[in-house]
Each structure stands twice: as structure tokens, then as C-alpha cells.
Known about the structure:
Strand content: under 5%
Shape: elongated
Radius of gyration: 31 Å
Number of domains: 3
Number of strands: 0
Structural class: mainly alpha
Distance between the termini: 87 Å
Low-confidence stretches: 1-51
Helix content: 55-70%
Amino acid sequence: FVFKFHFICCAVVRGLRPANGILLRLWTLQHLLMQLSRSIWIMLVIWLVGLTLCVIQELVAKNLESSDLNFSRYGDTFFEVVFTGGRTQPGTIKPDEGERHPYSVIECEAKREAILPSVIYIQKILRRRPFLIKNLENVMRRFLQSLELFEDNERKKLAIFTALAFSQKLSGLPPETVFQPLLKDNLVVKGLVLSFITDFFKEYLVDNSLDDLISILKRGKMEDNLLDFFPSAKRSPEGFSEHFTKEGLVPLVEYNEKKIFEVKLKEMKSALTTQIAEESDISEVIENVKQRVKDAKLPDIEVVRILWDVIMDAVQWSGKNQQQNANSALRQV
């Protein structure tokens, strides 16, 4: 209907004289219809391209399923081709021979829309051949330990791929496969790990909650060691807050501050329990409390709660004599 009406308007406009008052309105309507028709064509092309990519991925996956390729022997090579477009040389990401094919992860745009098809494609392959998950782990571990060999834009693509892989629950990819290889001193010092993990966090939180991210960090044994991703010059709670606040990850900053606060409370409680058990001098205990409150900036209400809990825990409670319990509590206070 839009196209038919568009052609009618064109014919009418050509047949009218310039002096006719309706000419301008018809011309405006024609212009709007042209814009609308162009938008429809663009939407149609995008839809067809997306459909074509899905069909191609399915066909390729089925073709690989029916092929006689020895995946058990060349599984690592297969994922090297998926990531870099060719078989890579030891100690580098460059193809062993020839040129890269243009459909690899590091050759596409650094956008989730461009990288997601590769994740879905790998998911299809892994469902048909689950044993390939070990090869994927091997290749990802090797690439993550070699981040310095990638360009900035390529590292971002790897981070986006990794985040999407966890979002899509890529056949049980273990988080430790990703996080542990990143803790190489030379990568951390250069800030490459911090940049990678920041892109990973930002992309993962697009589709997932902070609780989901914390769950992955726990399974990767990194929840309590997030500062290990930072170069030594920035490895402090203040550096953590400054960096991730600047990157727009305020919920992560708030979570970390709460966790640090809880750790300081536990440390203070443990120190007080030890001092009371050792019957340390009261003035020494008071000085210790004041210093910890000052250093950790603990609110008074939390300090009072901890002091009360520690004092009551130190009382030798009797299960029968209530008067003895009361006297013991008063004596302890």
C-alpha cells in the first residue's frame, strides 16, 4: 500500500501546475512516504540478514556434524579458527599460514550484536559434541594469558564474547577458566587485565543482575580478590571505587564497600574477643577500639553492637542458676 500510494503521489505531483496550492502538501506527503518506504526496506534487509545468519549458522553446524573431521585431534585448531580466523602459531595470535577469514570473533565489530552469533554458533557445536568444551577452555585460557598480543579493540571483543558466553550459559564453561589465567603479573601490571575485566563486567551486567555476577566470581574464586585485577599502584579500596564509579558500575562499588565494611567489623570483633580472653588491660582494649573506629570509620551503632556481643560471649553462662548468670553478666560489663 505504501509503495502504491507513493507512486500515485509522484504522478499527481508531476501533473499539477506550480501555482496549485495543494502541490506543497502533496510533495511533503510524498517525501514522508519516501522516508517511510526507505525505513521499511532497511528493516526488511536487517531482518533478512539476521535470518540468513541464523540459517547459515545452523547449516554450518549440521555440516560439521555430518563431516568426518577429527575434532578430538583438531579441537583446539577449530576454536583458533573461530576466534582468530586461522590456525595460530605458538606464542602468537597470528595465523600459521595464509590470511584470516573475515568472520572470526576478532574480525567482527566490537558490539554484542556482532559477536552474539558466534556464541550461539559455538553453543550449537558444543551441544552436538560436548567433549569440545575442553578444547574451548584450552584456547580461551591460552588467549587470555596472551592478552598483550591483541590490540585494544580485539581484547574488548574477547571480553564481550566471554560475557556473552556466561550469559548464554555456554555448556558449563567454568568461571575459573576465565579468571585464573588473567592473574599473570605482567598482564596485571600493564593494566590489561583491569581493562578486560571492566569490559566483561559492563557487558555481562547488560542482561544479568549483580547477584549473577557475584555468583560467577564466587565460582571463579575471585569474589574476595577483586583487587588482584588492579595494578599495584591502584590496588586499594579507593582505587577500586574510583575506577568502577568512573566506568558506571556503581552497584559493584557499593557491593565492594559493603563487603569491606563487614570484613572490618569481623576483624574488630575477633581482636576484641582475643583481648578479653587474654584479660588485657582495659585501657589497652579501649585504645584498640578507638583506633579501629578511626581507621575504618565505623558508625557508633555498629561499635556498640560489637562491644555488647563480645562482652556477652565472654560470660560463662550457667544453664540452671539464673542469678549466677545475671551476676556474671554484670561483672563482665
